[in-house]
Amino acid sequence: MYSQKLTVTFLLLLILSGCSSNKKDDQSKPYSINPQNDTIFCFIKQIQKNGNMYEVELDRIDFLHAEEAQKAMIEDGLLEPGEWPLNDYYIRNKEHLIEKFRFDESVLILMQTYSFNEETEEFNWNQKISIDELINILTRTDGVNYINHPFNLIVNEDKIIQIKEQYIP
Questions:
Q1: 109: in domain
Q2: Between vectors from CA 151 to CA 148 and to CA 152, what angle results, nearest 5°?
Q3: Host domain of residue 141
Q4: DSSP secondary structure string, 79-103?
Q5: I need a labelling partner for 56 at 20 to 30 A (CA). Which of 1, 76, 119, 156 fits?
Q6: Does 11 map to a domain?
Q7: Which residue, among 152, 150, 111, has the nearest Cα to 131 in the 3D structure?
Q8: pTM for the complete prediction?
Q9: Residue 61's pLDDT is what?
Q10: How far apart are CA 118 and CA 135, in angstroms?
Q11: Counting Cβ atoms within 10 Å, is residue 70 exposed (0-12), middle (13-18) or buried (19+)?
Q12: How would DSSP label each residue in 112-138?
């Protein structure tokens, strides 16, 4: 009887210890998406280092698909009713307003079309790049310049925690 109670007590403690939260675990996942984070589609206009932070100037856009894209393009006079957007998407930028956000060295940067794999004949999807590489591709004058290329940002208040290139066909 005593050993049964001891076993039940041990199992109960084991279950309860697995249910407790540990702040160190939460901090080890800085890129997890939670309800407090926002997703922003934008054009990144400029990135500048300021101390241990980077300041980003961006212009928000609407990245619309299917019926939403069709409706917006008809409203904007770019399509007639019954016509469909090329590749089934539309990037709308009705309000050219530059906003400032920031990020630090912990930001996750993922590119979709940064490099191409000759063997698979595919882009290297979700390729991680450094902050310096991102700044370089936004400012270069030869090759592909990503200054007016859409990005998808995960933002918590005014801090960017993830920058992801939005693939466009």
A1: yes
A2: 155
A3: 33-62+96-165
A4: S-TT---GGGEEEE-----EEEEEE
A5: 76
A6: no
A7: 111
A8: 0.74
A9: 95
A10: 25
A11: buried
A12: SSS-EETTTTEE-TTEE--HHHHHHHH
